[in-house]
Each structure stands twice: as C-alpha cells, then as structure tokens.
Write a structure and sequence with these properties.
This protein has 242 residues and is an alpha/beta fold. 38% of the residues lie in helices and 13% in strands. The chain has one domain: TIM Barrel.
Length: 242
C-alpha cells in the first residue's frame, strides 16, 4: 500500500493513516528479494487513482494495482486503468462499504468481463454465510486477511472449495492461528493462498513483522512456500515478470 498526502486522503470511521510512501515500503522490505507486488487501495483513498498511478510508475512493470470500485467508471475508463496496471477491484465490507452485495456482484462481473479483473473482499468471515451465494457468483473472488475470524473460517474454506483465493495477510488482525488457517486452505487447494505483507498495516492490532514471513518459512515445504509467496500471486494478478 502507498499512502501519499500529496494525493486525496479521506477520513474513514474517524481514522486517517500516517504517510507511507513506496520508498518506505522498499526500505522496510530491503532484506528480501522482491520480484513484484500489488498496491491495494485503502478505504481512505476512496476513488482516487492518481496516487496509484504515481506508485505504479515508481515501482515499475512488476507491480499491479487494486482500486476501490467507482460505479461512474465507463468501460473505457476501466480499459485505461488496466493499461497502467490495475488488475482488481476491492470492497471493504468490514469498514462499511456503501455498496450492497447486489452491487458488488454486478460490479465484479462487469470488470471481469471488460478486463478480467478479480474482486478482493475485506470481510469478517462470520458475515459470509448470509451472502455466500452472491459471493460464489463472482467470477474470480479473493477473501482478504484469511477472513479475520475463527468462528466463520469454515465459510472461507467453503469458498476455497468453489475456487476462491484467500490472502495470507494481516496476521495481526486475526483472532486465530494463521498457520492453522493456511494449512487448511492449502490442503483444499494449494493454488488458492496468496501472501501479502499488509504494509503499512493500518488499524491492525499488531502490524506486519518479519516474523510473519518466518511463520510460513518454518511451517511449509519448499513447494508450498513457492506457491504462497509468489506463484499463486503471479497467477492471480496475471503478472509476467520483466
């Protein structure tokens, strides 16, 4: 994520995040070989894409963007955003998105048809059951942060069985063991789990730390780690590394 106060930042539920620039991300992750990544728009960035264009220009061709869906976008707007590296839309149900589940379903199908974009949903897994059928109709679905809650985690696994991806990210946001969760997902579909740092971990009870990477390194075999850390992400974001 990039948080740049040279561009539009709005308050969300009384919260405005501290600045976190692309150079800060690279400095934080300098101990690791970064092949590419995804810049995910936060709720406080609303529909602004100017910050994203700047960040994608800084990072280069091996990075892609995820935006908050703007219903005012024309088909040509979506195509132009795709050209600069946007590959997905995101809906923040956890933080009170304005869109209904019907709108989310419609928008997800629309952007997939136009540009093959997938949809990332930030939702507490306890809230999945009532909208599960709608979520299953989304052509390419991603659940953020392992679904957050142990109580609803079976809902996440049900989605994985039907082809959904899950982000292994935001471990400090969870109320249960991330290793347990990832192992359950991998046992169903080894291609479904995608690691993300979640930097700069806005509003997380515990921000991302290097120990989060160690958890995966210490609990999965080499083949599983390759998939979790980059192969699954390359497939999801349709990245051809240059």
């Amino acid at each position: 994520m990039s948080i740049d106060y040279n561009y539009k930042i709005i308050e969300n539920q009384g919260y405005k995040p501290p600045q976190f620039l692309p150079k800060d991300y690279l400095e934080f992750m300098s101990n690791y070989e970064l092949l590419g990544g995804a810049i995910v728009s936060g709720s406080f960035q609303d529909f602004d894409t100017q910050y994203l264009k700047s960040a994608l220009s800084f990072f280069g061709k091996n990075y892609v963007g995820v935006i908050n869906y703007n219903p005012d976008y024309s088909d040509s707007d979506i195509i132009e955003l795709d050209k600069i590296g946007v590959k997905a839309i995101r809906f923040n149900i956890k933080r009170g998105t304005k869109e209904t589940i019907d709108t989310i379903e419609y928008a997800s199908k629309r952007v997939f048809e136009i540009a093959s974009w997938h949809s990332e949903i930030y939702i507490d897994s306890k809230d999945i059951e009532s909208i599960k059928n709608k979520l299953l109709s989304i052509p390419c679905l991603v659940i953020d942060h392992l679904g957050l809650s142990k109580d609803g985690f079976l809902n996440v696994l049900n989605l994985v069985e039907k082809g959904a991806y899950v982000k292994a990210s935001g471990f400090g946001r969870l109320d249960f063991d991330p290793v347990f969760a990832i192992k359950q997902i991998v046992s169903i579909n080894p291609n479904a789990c995608v690691f993300g740092s979640d930097l700069p971990s806005t509003r997380a009870q515990r921000p991302f730390s290097y120990s989060d990477i160690d958890l995966i390194n210490n609990n999965f075999d080499d083949s599983q780690k390759r998939k979790i850390f980059y192969e699954n992400g390359l497939n999801l974001y349709r990245l051809n590394l240059k």
